[in-house]
Structures are given as C-alpha cells and as structure tokens.
Specification:
The structure holds 3 protein chains of 3 kinds. By secondary structure, chain A is mainly α. Chain A has one domain: MetI-like (MetI-like fold), CATH 1.10.3720. In chain A, 68% of the residues lie in helices and 3% in strands. Chain A contains 13 helices and 2 strands, in the order αββαααααααααααα. In chain A, helix 5 crosses helix 11 and helix 12 packs antiparallel against helix 13. Chain A is globular. By secondary structure, chain B is an alpha/beta fold. Chain B has 2 domains: 204 residues, D-Maltodextrin-Binding Protein, domain 2 (3-Layer(aba) Sandwich), CATH 3.40.190.10; 206 residues, Periplasmic binding protein-like II (D-Maltodextrin-Binding Protein, domain 2), CATH 3.40.190. In chain B, 44% of the residues lie in helices and 13% in strands. Chain B is built from 21 helices and 14 strands. Chain B is globular and about 65 Å long. By secondary structure, chain C is mostly helical. Chain C has a single domain, classed as MetI-like (MetI-like fold), CATH 1.10.3720.10. Helix content of chain C is 73%, strand content 0%. Chain C has 14 helices and no strands. The longest helix of chain C has 47 residues. Classes of the chains: A mainly alpha, B alpha/beta, C mainly alpha. Chain B: Pfam families: SBP_bac_1. Chain B: InterPro entries: Bact_solute-bd_prot1 (IPR050490), SBP (IPR006059). Chain B: It comes from Streptomyces bingchenggensis (strain BCW-1).
C-alpha cells in the first residue's frame, strides 16, 4: 500500500449500520459455533497480527531502554516527552497543514471529474476515466521516483523548459516548496481512486431523484450542487476519512524524496518517518512506540472530529 | 617523509608500536600475512577452527567485494561466504539494528564506517577479535587507525580504509581567475569571495548541510574534540568547544555572505556541480579522487590535489572523513571463520591491494600505504599528479586523538536538524552548534550517561 | 440510501444515463487534465529509451540521443547478477499468495458476520473496523520483534502473513454477503439437509465471487505497492520485492558506491515493474469498479 500497510486509502467509516435480521434464529448454539468456525481464521490472524502487536507496543511504550543501565520502567514518561518534543509536534503540524490544503484540492478535483463523467457529456469517457485512474496502479515508490526526476533542478524537464525561456529553474525540491511538491505527488496518485469511488456513488443515485428537477429546467450545475452532491455525502465522507488517515501516515513519498532533497526533508519530516528514525536510527524503540501511539490518537481524534462536523452540518441542512 | 608521530599527544604506546610496525612491515611486506588468520593464539586455535566447515554471511555495500571474498574462500576452502549488499550505510545500519534488536537475522561479518564502531560496541553487538588473532595484525596498521577500532586490549573491528581529508581543486578555474591555491583558511575565504565575485555562478566550495562527516572532519582538523569518555558511563560532550566555535564562525561568514554553496552532496545536482565547475574545490577524503574520476569524467585533467587549508600554517593538520571497517557480530555461530574473514580482507596483501586498486579505497594498512607502486601512481585525471602520495603525506598530519560518540547515528542526524538546517537557511552556525550540543547532551542523559 | 447491489452499480458504470449533448469544452478540459496524469508515465517511457548520457543531455520529455531501450532492458535484467528478475518474481509471489489468502479469509469471515448470529458479533466487528485507524508504524515494529522471536523475520512469510489479514476486506465482504446471498437460499439448502460447509461452497461462495475478486484486487495492489513492511522485515536482497530493490538501486545511483551509471537502469526497471499491475487493472476493470462501489455506496 502506498501510504499505509493495510489496504486501500479508501476504507469505510466505522462503525457501519448493522442490519437487523429478518428471520427467526433457530438452533442458535449450533449456528453460533458454525459462525465462529467460519470467522476463526480471520479472527485468529486479527489477534495475532493486530491485538498482540498493539499490546506489545503499548507495553514497550511504558519502558525505557538505555544504552547505559538497560531497561527501566518509565510509566508515562515517554508520552510526556513526546508531547514536549518539538520534532514530533512539528511533524504533526506539518501534516495538518498538508491535510487542509491537499485533501480539499484532491477531493474537489476528484468530485469535479466524477461529476463530469456522470453528466454523460464527455466524449471518450472510458479513456478519460482510465487515464485519470492509472496512477493508482503505480506503486508510490515509483511515483515518488518519477516525480523526483521530473522535479530535478538540473535535468528535470521543467527546469529544462524554464531555462529554455530564460527563467530560473523552479525550486520544487527546496525547503520552501517541498511540501507542495509532495502534495502534488499524493494528489496525482489518489485523485483517480477517489474519483472512481465518487463516480460509483453518483451512478447509484436513482435517476428519478433529479429527472424531475431537469424537467423543471434546472441546469446541470444546479442539479449537481443541490441533488447529486448531497446524495453522495456518505461516499465523500469516506474519502475524507481515508485521506486523513493516509496523510498522517505519510511515509513512502517523503522517504524516497529525502534521498534527492535531504536538506528539505529531514528524518522527522512526517510523524511516521520520525517514528521510524527513532526506532531504527536513534535506538529508541520504546519512545518510538509512544510516538506511534500518540499519532494513532491524533488520527482517531481528527477522523472523529471530521465525522462529527459533517453530521452536524447534515442535520442542520 | 615526515614522522608518523606528528601531532600525536596521547597514546604514546600504540604510536610506538605503530611506528615500529611501519619499519618492520616495509621491510618484509608481502609474505607476512600467511599467519594472520590461520596462526594460533592464546585463546582460540584458529588453525583448527578454520578447517571446520562453516557458512557465514557478510554485509557490505562495496561493489565487487566478492572478488576479495573469493581469495578468502580459496585460502579456506571449507568456509563459504554469502555476500549480501544490504544497502548504503544509511540503509544498512537500521537493518542491522533491527536484526540485533530481534536477536536474529544479523550477519556474521558486517561493514561499518569507522565512526560507527563505538556505537555498536556499546550495545555489545561486536565480538572482541583479540582472541581470534586480531592482536597479531595490529602491527600492520598505523597506530591511530588501530585506536579507532580498539579499546584497551580489545579489538572490535578491522580497519578497511581510511579517509584523511584534503582539497581537490579545479586548476583551470584557479588559473582563469588568478587564484592561488589557498594554504590557510584566511586565504581560502579571500579566494572564495574573489571567485564568487568574478563568476556569480561559481563557488569556491560546497559545504553539504546533510553530511555531518564533512563538517566533523573540518572540526577534527581544527582540534575540536566533541566526545571524550572517562569511564564507560561517563561522556564529556564538547561539540561546541572553542575549536568548533572557531570553525563555525568561519563558515558562518562564508555561508552568510553567499560565497560558498550549501547543496546536499551525493545527489544528481551535486554531481552536476562537480562536473560543471560550479564548485571549484571539493573538501573530501582520500577516497575522493578515485570517486571523482568515476563521476566527473568530462573534467579529466582539470583537477589537482592539495592539503586542506590550515588554521596554523606552521602546524599542518587534517581530519579524517569516512573510512570503514569489517566487524564481527557477537551472535555469529562461526566466530573464528567470521573473524578470519574480517582480518583476511583487510590485512592480506593480495586482498588489500585489490581493495586499493579495484574498489579504489584509500588503504588502511601501513604496507599498502607505503607501497611504492601505490604511491607513485600518477593519475591523468589529476594532470598526472601522484595523488596517493599527497594523501599519504596528509595522513601523517591527521590528529590522532579524536574519538567518536557511542551513538554517532544520532549525532549525525541531529547535525542535519541543527547546523545543517542553519547552513541551508544561511543562518549563523554557531547558534546552531549550541543546539546540536544541547540535543546530544539531552540524548546522552536520557540514555543513562553522566554527562560532564 | 437504498441498497443497490454491486452488480447493478457495476453494470451501470460507463453507460451514461443521461445521453445529453456532448460538450466539447468539457471534453477538452478533461483531456487537458489527462495530460497531467499521463505526463510522468510518458516521461518514464521516453526516458527508458535513453542511455545515461542522453538522460541528462537531451530534453526530458522527448526522445533523443539514440534508442537504447533494449540495451537498458538487458541491463536491468543482468545488473547485480540478474537479481531484478528475482525481485519481480518475489513481488508476484508475495502479492498473489497474500491477496488470494486475504480474500479467502475475508470471504469466510464476512459470510459468517453477515449470515449468522452469534454472541459478540457486533462488538467484534466494531473492533475490527476501528483497527483501520491504527498507524502502520505502531504495528510494524512490534510485529517485527515478535516475528523475530519465532524466526519468521527475513523469510517470505514475514511479508506475506501480515498481509493475509485485511479488516477492510472483511467489511467489504460482510456488506457484500448481506445482499448477494439471500437468506432464503441458505434456508432452502438447509432444508435439503446440507451442512454449513457445503452450503458455503455450493451456494455462498459462488455468489460471493465478485466480492472475492474485489478484495483480491485490493490486496494485490496493497501487496504489490508495499514498501514499509518489507523495508523492515527483509535484509536479504534475494528476498526483496521490487519496490525495495528499486529504491535501493536508486539510493546507490547517488551513493558513494556507484554514481551515475544506475539511473537508466532504475528508470527502465520502474517501467517494467508497473506494467503487470497496469495490465491487471485494464483487464479487470469490471471487478474493481464494481467492488469499489460496494464499499462506498452502501449506507
């Protein structure tokens, strides 16, 4: 996966509405046993690969292992330190800045493309849909690598073009611009994916919903704004949540770009990179665990806040 | 030939041994290594151990190191060596750390940069090679080189190459702008201003903000001694000592005036800068000339080599940058075979000769350092200059009492975040030096050291 | 929102439901955007035809300086003793095994959650879903330490096993199974005296196949693109997947060891490595487009 280890950047908002059953349950004990048997392989792996490691990380985060003196119980000291750690704070704030700019741009564009496709007014809709989607099939490592070359201040084509017309090469890889350059890579990778999700949602809107409006002479844009977009609120919400999760976990793209722009991307550029550096370079596995946990808390809080805000707005309208 | 003792203040004993060894080895270089790996020692019967079949794993980032390994396998047919390229140092160390942490997956023998040896020694990850015959090859290396890998009578790695620092410069550019090769830092600053004024696109040199080894080499030359440990748990951190402040003030001036560039090194842009004349000098280690020859082919014949500019022209000094070693991981199931490989690669005459010629490493052994064939090789790329001889002379001026911290990764990382960042932003380095000092002190305390 | 089944959503894709006027302006605008999306790929293709010299001396977005694609291809597959081919095979192996496994486990689990009632069902399901927010670093590091204790580190299993468990896959399959497998069909089979396993194989699985393929594709992409997990789990270059291998070559291209000669290899290697997945996506369009809608349309 590009930004995370688990599947797609688009994963649903937990928890979904669980349906109530429609038939009387019989032989309930036997049924429960059968169900457990079916779910067992998944659940066992879930415990082994998620619950246990998470517990272990929590345990690690409460200790401190020193080069001198070995392992000592530290209580919440690692967490306190992380809250005071300017490198951690800066990395989280950097991603927050990334989030408030990149996500609206990416999702706005994805929504626009999805609406355009859904309007049925495009020629070559298939070609356009696939062309926009293709970047999703490209590993983020390779995406970052390609853009890295394109950004190059010496042999990058943009630099060549700029020099060709007598301008200075654009400073894509300078400390001032690197965040925007990263945002561009991520946007490029995931617009198509989000577009497909939103497009699928648009396609499942019953045409009856807006046929009447069209009869009344409402234009395509008004229909889109007043009928279609509200109807796919749920899908939009999903895209936002996954983008939040993905953004805070950003690792591959900055890690790769750090190779060509080390003065712009430090080892603590994103929270995930920082945790990686702490664990594998600074030999502070325990502190890294605490930092990762706090990052998880940030993600949960922001995701929850986004959902809450959206529910409020939905209720008001 | 200058005395090998120049500038040496401490550790007279090892120096004496080294000096003696130099004499002995130049007298009988070539045939001396047969006993290096296979000889008997007090502790381990190497001859018997090395007859036993063993398969060991060796991590190295050197291209073509397999050739040297083949020499070893030929000599010890029962030992098989699996060579793994685990990536450049910055990739290899995290991998090694995880493997060590996990207790499995670590190699038997590993290439470490010299400055990393204490960092892996303190975690008790490295095997003491003394009982495996390493004490017997001590005499093959200059004393200070050996000091970098040993503590008392224990030996934790075998030096592979070294990196005394010098200055590679573009003679054509110097000639064009009538710049005299600077021998002092004061002259260097004047030249920097002169060149940049004459050609705003050119800089006398580039100081990389993302490579702490360069800056540390310059600190080393100036006499800064950032780390000193009196006991195993005590560390004196003097990153911002007076010599370091002197260096930082000096470079602050050059950087703030815009007379030198601050590009990251070893990336496309930097290669291009070396080839295009953007940088008129490269302050680098002895492995630099060969490296440059391979990467800036178009500039052949335009480069020359000189010692670093000096703070005190009467007392020439230099620092060391880079250089690496072979170490044996303590968990190795075949310690004797692993130790033999580490020693063979870096002390066998055929192997060291190959390291110098094929991998273009600047030698660590006294024999290779004094091999007339090596010294008198004239390189057309450098206008026929006997580059190795220049660096061999520089090597004798390297101050030898420099020690590394036991967490050097952290130190270099933090360099990027403090001094490096100030370089990129063209801010004052001395203030950043204090930040660097504070971060490292804080880390050391957190790691349980008493810091003085 | 009403529940549209995946199949109808999938079938409706591509067919424009409002065959209004085609807009040239909109089409041109979209084609302009298309340039942005395809530009890096075009650059990649162009660059794969250049040798190291012309890579830096010719204009990046057009052919020039000879046609060296086949030489580059040859170099990619022979550099470092031909290890690139090994990386490709590793990637394929890891991706196929973990995606088939993950899809199967998710199908079994999703079927159980959708079609059976048992104590702890909702709680368990909520926990699984909540786990999606756990950052990868929190998990990867302890997983590494635990795996090393049982000797899994630096083996293919170290990168396959963690990918077998997909909380998203389970969610998708549960939602899918609720609609795709009618209760009446299960009841009827049960009346005929079929056991739970037989019902699953003969009735359930066949109906769940489109969902199964969707999860499989998702996990295939996730595995194929995986970087963080193998970065930490694997030390041996012979076990690397392509992402790690190419990143290492890229690092070497600028490292002390190699310098420039590797650039054309990295670029051509990148091009070769993306072809299988791009091809898979083009061929399996129906499935992923349908599957994607399952996850989001449902309310």
């Amino acid at each position: 996966m590009s930004r995370t280890v688990t599947p797609a950047p688009a994963r649903p908002v937990p928890p979904p509405v669980i349906r109530t059953t429609r038939r009387p349950w019989r032989r309930s004990t036997r049924e429960a046993l059968t169900a457990y048997a079916f779910a067992a392989p998944f659940v066992i792996l879930f415990v082994a690969l998620l619950v246990i490691p998470l517990g272990y990380a929590g345990y690690l985060s409460l200790y401190r292992e020193q080069l001198v003196g070995g392992k000592v119980f530290a209580g919440l000291a690692n967490y306190r330190q992380a809250l005071d750690d300017p490198l951690f704070r800066d990395s989280v704030l950097r991603m927050a800045r990334f989030l408030v700019i990149q996500v609206p741009v990416m999702l706005g564009a994805a929504l626009f493309f999805a609406l355009a496709l859904d309007s049925g007014r495009l020629r070559f809709p298939r070609l356009i849909r696939l062309g926009i989607f293709i970047p999703y099939a490209i590993p983020s490592v390779i995406a970052a690598l390609m853009w890295g070359y394109l950004y190059g201040p010496d042999f990058g084509p943009f630099a060549q073009l700029a020099r060709g017309v007598g301008l200075d090469a654009p400073g894509f890889l300078t400390p001032d611009w690197i965040l925007a350059s990263l945002a561009n890579i991520v946007t490029w990778e995931f617009i198509g994916y989000n577009m497909i999700i939103l497009f699928a949602a648009l396609q499942s809107i019953p045409p009856t919903l807006y046929e009447a409006a069209a009869m009344d002479g409402a234009g395509a844009w008004r229909i889109a704004w007043h009928i279609k977009i509200p109807a796919i609120r749920q899908a939009l919400m999903l895209s936002v949540i996954f983008s939040v999760i993905g953004t805070f976990q950003l690792f591959n793209e900055p890690k790769l770009l750090a190779g060509i722009a080390p003065d712009a991307i430090s080892a603590s550029y994103t929270p995930n990179m920082y945790a990686y550096t702490l664990a594998f370079t600074n030999q502070e596995v325990n502190y890294a665990s605490a930092v990762s946990f706090l990052l998880g808390v940030v993600i949960v809080v922001v995701s929850y806040a986004v959902q809450l805000a959206s529910h409020r707005r939905a209720r008001r309208s | 030939m200058k005395s090998p003792n120049t500038g040496r203040r401490s550790r007279l004993f090892t120096t004496a041994v080294g000096g003696l060894a130099l004499l002995v080895l130049t007298a009988c270089s070539g045939g001396s290594s047969n006993g290096a790996g296979g000889g008997t020692t007090k502790s381990v019967d190497m001859a018997a151990e090395l007859k036993k079949p063993a398969t060991i794993e060796f991590w190295s980032w050197l291209d073509g190191i397999e050739d040297e390994v083949k020499l070893f396998e030929k000599k010890y047919p029962n030992i098989k060596v699996k060579v793994v390229n685990a990536g450049q140092p910055s990739a290899e160390y995290p991998k090694l750390r995880t493997a060590l942490k996990a207790g499995s997956g670590a190699p038997d023998v590993v290439q470490l940069e010299t400055h990393e040896v204490p960092s892996f020694t303190i975690t008790k990850s490295l095997l003491d090679l003394a009982p495996y015959g390493a004490d017997k090859i001590r005499s093959k290396f200059p004393g200070w080189t050996w000091d970098q890998v040993s503590q008392g009578s224990s030996v934790y790695a075998i030096p592979q190459d070294s990196g005394p620092m010098g200055m590679l410069y573009r003679k054509d550019i110097f000639d064009k702008y009538h710049i005299k090769v600077p021998t002092t830092w004061a002259e260097f600053a004047t030249a920097a201003e002169k060149l940049h004024k004459a050609d705003p696109k050119a800089y006398l040199t580039n100081i990389p903000p993302t490579n702490g080894t360069v800056y540390t080499g310059l600190l080393w030359q100036a006499g800064s001694r950032p780390f000193k440990s009196t006991t195993a748990t005590n560390l004196r951190v003097g990153i911002d000592d007076s010599a370091a402040r002197k260096v930082s003030d000096y470079w602050s001036g050059l950087i703030e005036s815009g007379n030198v560039s601050t590009d990251p090194d070893f990336n496309d842009q930097w290669y291009r800068g070396l080839a295009s004349g953007k940088y008129a000098t490269w302050l680098t280690a002895a492995w630099g000339p060969m490296f440059l020859q391979g990467t800036a082919k178009k500039t052949a014949g335009k480069w020359r080599v000189a010692p670093l500019p000096q703070w005190n022209a009467k007392e020439p000094a230099s620092g060391n940058m880079g250089g690496s070693t072979s170490a044996v991981i303590r968990t190795s199931k075949h310690p004797a075979a692993a130790a033999a490989l580490a020693q063979f690669l870096n002390s066998d005459p055929a192997s060291t000769k190959m390291l110098a010629s094929k991998q273009s490493l600047f030698p660590a052994t006294t024999a290779q350092l004094n091999d007339p064939k090596f010294l008198d090789q004239s390189l057309p790329f450098f206008g026929g200059q006997k580059v190795n001889r220049v660096f061999s002379d520089i090597a004798k001026t390297v101050k030898t009492d420099f020690t590394w911290s036991p967490f050097q990764d952290y130190v270099f990382n933090t360099f990027n975040e403090t001094v490096g960042k100030a370089m990129t932003r063209r801010q004052n380095l001395t203030a950043a030096l204090t930040q660097w000092q504070d971060s490292v002190t804080g880390y050391a305390k957190k790691q349980g050291f008493t810091v003085s | 929102m009403t529940s549209h089944t995946t199949s109808t959503a999938a079938a409706s894709l591509g067919s424009s439901r409002q065959p209004g006027r085609r807009s040239n302006v909109l089409t041109l605008l979209m084609l302009a955007f298309l340039i942005y999306f395809l530009l890096p790929l075009f650059w990649l293709i162009v660059s794969a035809t250049k040798d190291n010299g012309s890579l830096f001396s010719t204009f990046g977005l057009w052919f020039g300086g000879g046609f060296d694609f086949f030489q580059n291809l040859h170099d990619v597959f022979t550099h470092d003793g031909g290890i690139y081919g090994r990386w490709l095979l590793n990637t394929a192996l890891y991706a196929v095994v973990s995606s088939v496994g993950a899809a199967f486990l998710a199908t079994l689990g999703g079927y159980a959650f959708a079609k059976f009632r048992f104590p702890g069902r909702n709680l368990l399901f909520s926990i699984v879903l909540g786990s999606i927010m756990v950052p990868s670093t929190v998990l990867t590091l302890p997983t590494y330490l635990l795996f090393s204790k049982i000797g899994l580190v630096n083996t293919p299993l170290a990168v396959i096993v963690p990918m077998l468990m997909s909380p998203f896959g389970l969610y998708l399959m549960r939602v899918y199974a609720e609609d795709a497998v009618p209760d009446s069909l299960i009841d009827a089979a049960r009346m005929d005296g079929a056991g739970a396993i037989r019902i699953f194989w003969q009735v359930g699985f066949r109906l769940l196949l489109p969902g199964f393929v969707t999860v499989l594709l998702f996990q295939l992409v996730a595995s194929w693109n995986n970087f963080f997990l193998p970065l930490i789990m694997l030390n041996n270059p012979k076990l690397y997947p392509m992402t790690i291998g190419l990143a290492q070559w890229q690092a070497q291209a600028g490292g002390v060891g190699g310098a420039q000669p590797l650039f054309s290899i990295v670029i051509t290697g990148s091009l070769v490595s993306i072809l299988p997945l791009v091809a898979a996506f083009l061929l399996l369009q129906r499935y992923w487009q349908g599957g994607l809608s399952t996850g989001s349309v449902k309310d």
